[in-house]
Amino acid sequence: xxxxxxxxxxxxxxxxxxxxxxxxxxxxxxxxxxxxxxxxxxxxxxxxxxxxxxxxxxxxxxxxxxxxxxxxxxxxxxxxxxxxxxxxxxxxxxxxxxxxxxxxxxxxxxxxxxxxxxxxxxxxxxxxxxxxxxxxxxxxxxxxxxxxxxxxxxxxxxxxxxxxxxxxxxxxxxxxxxxxxxxxxxxxxxxxxxxxxxxxxxxxxxxxxxxxxxxxxxxxxxxxxxxxxxxxxxxxxxxxxxxxxxxxxxxx
Amino acid sequence: xxxxxxxxxxxxxxxxxxxxxxxxxxxxxxxxxxxxxxxxxxxxxxxxxxxxxxxxxxxxxxxxxxxxxxxxxxxxxxxxxxxxxxxxxxxxxxxxxxxxxxxxxxxxxxxxxxxxxxxxxxxxxxxxxxxxxxxxxxxxxxxxxxxxxxxxxxxxxxxxxxxxxxxxxxxxxxxxxxxxxxxxxxxxxxxxxxxxxxxxxxxxxxxxxxxxxxxxxxxxxxxxxxxxxxxxxxxxxxxxxxxxxxxxxxxxxxxxxxxxxxxxxxxxxxxxxxxxxxxxxxxxxxxxxxxxxxxxxxxxxxxxxxx
Amino acid sequence: xxxxxxxxxxxxxxxxxxxxxxxxxxxxxxxxxxxxxxxxxxxxxxxxxxxxxxxxxxxxxxxxxxxxxxxxxxxxxxxxxxxxxxxxxxxxxxxxxxxxxxxxxxxxxxxxxxxxxxxxxxxxxxxxxxxxxxxxxxxxxxxxxxxxxxxxxxxxxxxxxxxxxxxxxxxxxxxxxxxxxxxxxxxxxxxxxxxxxxxxxxxxxxxxxxxxxxxxxxxxxxxxxxxxxxxxxxxxxxxxxxxxxxxxxxxxxxxxxxxxxxxxxxxxxxxxxxxxxxxxxxxxxxxxxxxxxxxxxxxxxxxxxxxxxxxxxxxxxxxxxxxxxxxxxxxxxxx
Lengths: 252, 307, 335
Description:
Chain A is an alpha/beta fold and 252 residues long. Chain A has 9 helices and 10 strands. In chain A, the strands form 2 sheets. In chain A, strands 6-7-8-3-9-10 form a 6-stranded mixed beta sheet, sandwiched between helices. In chain A, strands 2-1-4-5 form a 4-stranded antiparallel beta sheet, covered by helices on one side. In chain A, strand 9 (217-222) and strand 10 (225-230) form a beta hairpin. In chain A, helix 3 (98-109) packs across helix 4, helix 3 (98-109) runs parallel beside helix 5 (152-164) and helix 4 crosses helix 5. The termini of chain A are far apart. Chain B has a domain at 2-214. Chain B is 74% helix and 3% strand. Chain B has 11 helices and 2 strands, in the order H-H-H-H-E-E-H-H-H-H-H-H-H. Chain B has a two-stranded antiparallel ribbon. In chain C, the strands form 2 sheets. A two-stranded antiparallel ribbon of chain C has the order 1-2.
């Protein structure tokens, strides 16, 4: 791995009062890989994603995306560079239909939206892209239902479709399988592995089966620090990781 | 110079009125998450009751003492009948419903007291002036207001900083759920806090009675200035309300007193008066705009809330 | 009735409104034409507010400010025209093709400046700050002694002059108002259904997510705010012409409240609703006292607001979908 990483996090720190949520964290994601981020609750995984997506400003450190320093880049500019996130707690547009949700996301890629007259509902380019993406997450038959009426699992998949339609170069996935049943989880794992060749992913996930099925590399985060990075099989046998996880299992 | 000191004191006194109204409003928002447009009505009710009871008994003190429970009573009634139903609603609903309350209360006051403004004399004991600095006489009554305001502010600080109720208030203004988790009777705490906010506003209204004409609409006038105060100070923060109030009070008063004269240095007198009057009435709003540009959440933002 | 009946309902409504002046004259109540003109004007203001309130989720409590700017532009230029004096070195004018667009433009500029500031905040701050800035403009106009200050300004030169159209004729003026309402309604309908409109509604539903999808949310909100300000400015232009009188009352904070009530009463987040709301609100305002008078309840005749206030509270608490919700039922799957 001599090539420049797509995402390069260098010495990132963020503290909330006395709590160090991110503690001098360095991490890189290489183009084409699925990089899983695991760690016990409170390890600072979502805080890291929030810094990568721009919602939280880090106290120190740098974030390079494709060689460019994006540490201070505004939130709404990042998706246009190809850095797209999905949310752990489903974040959709409840009054819009599933199709409209994805079309609205697709619209963001299609230039500015200061277009006041042509009816968007009849915008074929947007609707076709949206319909294809919906189909790819298995929601084709739900296209015209309002998003708030979808089941939890369907909303999770809608969330994923909204991220995918942005054609990300790096997808930040914050527990995409959270709250899903085993069948739906397996389906999403399938969807993600078909994307393996086209999208680089940084994946937060608690479901270890999914992590080991998908990840090329795994980073273990504890108290805001990366205690280990490596191939899944190496991580599995790492004593420091076992200790960190044993602690969590006892608490749980 | 003499005039300047006098105007600063006048500004301080306006600031104290604003603080008394703002403190309740900002805590009610901070803790209950409700924007209550009818808070200014409590100021008005304080003034009306004080004016009426003083007229009947001849004693301003009795008038003042009657105004406090009256404002508290109306405050509690408002909370129990309307506001309580709005805690879980969006801000738009709160704005509209409390706007409806204003229409109702203003009309009710008009029915009871008529449209002619009431006038309230400065109580005999507090009439006259004292020389605060040699050569600067200042009305005793206004000094009393400043002293009373400082006293109330200190009391409020003591309650908030030193008592269990204060601890709940502090906790509640940054984290509402936590207070609920402490097993406190939330409904009672809310009603009590509302009553306290009403008493402060009513107190301010009663004290303002002898200085202004007591009439319908006086509540909204002070309410909107209070908003400016809160925006400058930061929502949910009593300290912010205090600083914001004094700032608004002093800037407004000094602006009105001196801006036209200062403009006369550059402009012909007639225009200076016109522009000066316009500019000075807009001054506090411009101040608000500047604060907003520099610090969008006010000078003393309460701890960030998830919203 | 089902939602699909909305279009026929609107067409019938339009036919009725077009016939209205003749009906009123036939019944010997030509005065009604003027009353309804006022309703048409406020309907424009209410629609413009709903664009940001109902579609964009921006609770602006200062909308009357833009109404006031539009109205004062007309009145002040008319004042200089009548008086022969100059304003910034230019003569006043009553020429509608100049002053009307100017009124709308300056309202839009005011909305751009104040909106740029207000939209730095959100939630409760936004409500208070829009109210406060509107109050600032109120005091600004109060302080304009030359233009009547508190007492307001009469347009002694009459309504604006329009080539080929006699605006001083009440019936003609009515049709001009109606034409503007229809035009503005159609414009807003297009906007709401456009890419921009979808972005606006997306922001209302989930602003954070919109930013994460790559939308510069602030710019879109500001654009909507300016469009709404221009719409209110148009209403102000017409209102000044309607009454031939302007006073700071037009941008009093209670007027902002009134316009907001029209939106809620009619049905927030719809374009038909605000029209119904404006009509109902202004009729209530005009006839509630009369009705109480007829019922020989003199106390309520003078103090009808004591009924109106609680009515408003009840609507807010229990009938959030407004008149629109009463008329048109929700479609399956809407909720």
